[in-house]
Structures are given as structure tokens and as C-alpha cells.
Amino acid sequence: MTDAAAAGETDAGRTAKLELDSVVKRFGQRTVLDHVDLSVAESEVICLIGASGSGKSTLLRCCNLLEPIDDGAIYLDGVDISEPGLSTDPIRRRIGMVFQNYNLFPHMNVLRNVTIGPMKVLGQSTAVAQVAAHELLAVFGLADKARAYPDQLSGGQQQRVAIVRALAMKPELMLLDEITAALDPELVGEVLDVIRGLKQERMTMVLATHEMSFAREISDRVAFLDQGVVCEIGSPQQIFNDPVEPRTRQFLQRVIDAGRL
User: Fold this and answer.
1) Which residue, 23, 51, 132, 181, could crosslink 72 as a Cys pair with Cβ 3.0–4.6 Å?
2) Average pLDDT in the 199-219 region?
3) What residues contact 224, with CB distance under 8 A and at least 6 apart?
4) ∠ CA(6), CA(9), CA(10), 5° rounding?
């Protein structure tokens, strides 16, 4: 583990759940992640901010092993999950990921979308999976949508179903990639309320987001990425009120000028 990763663990003051140690990811000749160090503590919420193309989504996809890394290592509970040849399925069972475009199965109703993973991957019976699904749907205000199909739902409802589907797998860590980006502005609030609830339940989360006010509210720490590098990481108060790095200050000033903070 690098000194920077260890420092991240000390700053959080809790046991590290996820660690990125000098992670490099390239697409052809383009370096998308450039020796990224990041440590996420148990029950911590970290928001990734930065301009489009800064590496936020790629970072999350690497953490869920959807993209292989080119150098460095990714640890889950101290175990290197990025080791070549390692089976990805057991790891993905422990990490939930929600994308900005929902990715629900259009030919399945909500109940089937939520139960298919627990039944096929976790080996739950239909009865057990359905009881758990109905409980989760009720918690997130979707009890009456169990038999509906994705195209019968609003964008906010589809995104909540996507979150419920991930939670049905009982993940230890949630990765959320710009989950409000595809929503109409009036639907953003209902999805962000779900994330507030998960934080209250002490779910460990890493979120890539353009919702700056929400990032300031929900985060334990905020990481600013620029050109594949974590330029600065700190508390929301420090990052938003007193950023150290000139690039961070420049980015936030543009956010303020655009009326988004």
C-alpha cells in the first residue's frame, strides 16, 4: 500500500473497505487513470467530482472489475481483487453498482428485475427473493410498482428500481455513477433522498456526481479528479470552501458561475 492510500485510511479514522493503490488505466495510448490512490473507509461516503472525462466513471468501473486495470492494485477488505485471473463473480456479489442509464431489463417487470439476481446468483428461492424485494420496494416508495414494466415508470422510478436491484444483492459497498444525470430536474430529488437514506444506514458508498450541493451535503470526503488524477481530497467544507489546488479552485469557480453551487 502506498503512503497516500494509507493516509486516506488515517484521515477517515475507520477501517479501510476499498483501496486503490497507484491504479493506472489506459485506453490505447490515452491514460484515463494516472496512478490513482484512494482509500474508502467502512461506512464512509466519498463523492468524486470533476469535469466530464476526468476519469470518475472509469474509476468506478475499475472498482467493480468491469474494466481491467493496467497497473497498481485494488483492494477490498485488504484482498487484491484486481489480480489477473481472479474470478470476478464473487467480488461483484459484494459490490453493487448503479449506472446513470438504469440498465433495467425492459422485458421483465420490476419484481423480476429485482429478484433475478438474488435467485440466480445468491441461490435464494423465489419466495424468499420476492419477500425481500417487496420489502425493499416498499422502503423506496415503489410498493405499487412491482408488476409494472420499466417503460411504464418515470425516470426517477426506474433509477430507484435500479438502486433496489443492487441492494437486493446485499452489497457491502455501493458504487453510483452519475445516477441523476439522465433525469429531469424535478426527478433528481427523489433519487437523492434514497442516497440520504442509505447514508443513514451506514452504507459504504462512492459516488460520481455533478450535483455539487448534494456532494457537499452527503459526503464524508470529496475527491476532485482532473485528467485521471486525484488532484485534491478532503472534507466537503475544505474542498468547497477552501480548496488548496489551483485546478480545484478553477473548476469550482466555473461551477459557481454556472449557478450549480
Assistant:
1) 23
2) 94
3) 49, 50, 230, 231, 232, 233, 239, 243, 245, 247, 248, 251
4) 90
Please give the DSSP secondary-structure letter assigned to residue 142. Answer: -
Residue 166 maps to a domain: no
Residues 252 and 51 sit within 8 Å (Cβ to Cβ): no
Question: What is the distance between the alpha carbons of residues 160 and 29, in angstroms, rounded to a whole number?
Answer: 37
Residue with cell 459504504: 204
Relative orientation angle of helices 155-167 and 110-120, to the nearest 10 degrees: 20
CATH of the domain at 46: 3.40.50.300
pLDDT at 238 over 50: yes
In this structure, is residue 164 part of a structural domain?
Answer: no
In a domain, 104, yes or no: no
Q: What's the domain count of the chain?
A: 1
- This prediction's pTM: 0.89
